[in-house]
Amino acid sequence: MEIRQLRFFVTVAEELHFGRAAAREHIVQSALSQQIQRLERELGVALLERTTHYVRLTPAGDVMLSETRRILHNLDHAVAATRAATVAAELRVAVGDASFDTMPLILDAVRDHLPALIEIHHVEAGVPEQYRLLAEGRLDIGIGRAAHAPNGIASQIVRLDPMGVLVGDGHRLGDRDAVAVADLADTALLFADETRAPEYNQFVRDLCLLSGFIPTVFPGTVQSMMCARILLRERRCALCVPRSCTPIPGLRWLPLIEPATCYPWSLLWRASDDSEALHWVLCCAKSVSTKCGWMSPPTTPPEAGVAPGIPAVSLR
After folding, report:
1. Which of these, 245, 236, 238, 221, lies nearest to 184 by C-alpha position?
2. Cβ–Cβ contacts within 10 Å for residue 241, how many?
3. How many C-beta atoms surround the C-beta of residue 146 within 10 A?
4. What is the mean pLDDT of the chain?
5. How do residues 12-58 score in pLDDT, each as one tens digit?
6. Is 39 within 8 Å of 32 (Cβ atoms)?
7. What is the number of helices (H) and of strands (E) in the chain?
8. What residues form the membrane-spanning segments (predicted)?
9. Are 48 and 35 within 8 A, CB to CB?
10. How many CB atoms are located within 10 Å of the residue 29 CB?
11. What is the dihedral of CA 170, 224, 299, 187, to 10 degrees?
């Protein structure tokens, strides 16, 4: 017995006319009649009375119609429920500062590889806020330095990002190919808002201390690269940023050397989250990291002022 035979039977029982039933099912009348006869043979009962003048249900046919409708209804419900289970899982993902390309590149790979399985909602938030949102269940994946991640937050380093300094055209450091960290001692450095990126500010301070000086702090802070670009273009200060910062017209990125240092970007998530969607994002992140060489930064500084090339990524 086949599902299509049951559907054919219901159509004939509703129409009580083989011609109209065949038209509804888009098959020839003789084929429909053969399927009904086959169903009757398999059941060992007559479901329909047929004459040259009419078609009507037998008592067994009445019972069969009621039960078949119930079976087909349950089957349709099962199919709908199965399809609903494959509707895109929603993920709330923090991109940090939108001027950095690590998370956008990972999410591009997720969309390319799993376009129908994961629906992504972007959240722009600093690392402290990401920790809070993750703990509250209002964020699923974050990005940042995980050195001070609280209990309950898991992390995975995906990129060791070469550090550099961003300066405006005409800045006294702007004509160099690279800048020694010690040469920043006489330069006012712009820092991020401490409430938004304390772990990043501390990383820059530690880098300066390692080279033997306390940084000169520019009076005032910024909350994003978009806010910083005006101050940098006016050559009032410089900003230490990793290589992943997207190019900004009127500004130059110069690699920092002596020592050459990398900023560790990590994905952040609730340790208790074992969802399939999170698993796939972590897999995509690992693939992008490997293909782009993010965990093997160059031993020599890249060319100053040139945006780093990102290898094409294909997860298919």
Report:
1. 238
2. 25
3. 20
4. 86
5. 899 888 889 888 888 898 998 998 899 889 888 898 898 888 889 99
6. no
7. 9, 12
8. none
9. no
10. 15
11. 40
152-164: pLDDT as tens digits: 999 999 999 999 9
Residue whose pair of structure tokens reads 């390319």 in the numeric block: 112
Q: Which residues pair with 91 in a beta bridge?
A: 120
Q: What is the mean pLDDT of residues 217-229?
A: 83
| E strands in the chain | 48-50, 55-57, 89-94, 118-123, 142-144, 153-168, 179-180, 188-192, 216-222, 239-242, 251-257, 262-270
Amino acid occupying residue 120:
I
CB under 8 A, 24+ apart: contacts of 147-152: 147/199, 148/198, 148/199, 149/268, 152/270, 152/271, 152/272
Q: What is the mean pLDDT of residues 212-223?
A: 89
Q: How confident is the model at residue 185 (pLDDT cuts 50, 70, 90)?
A: very high
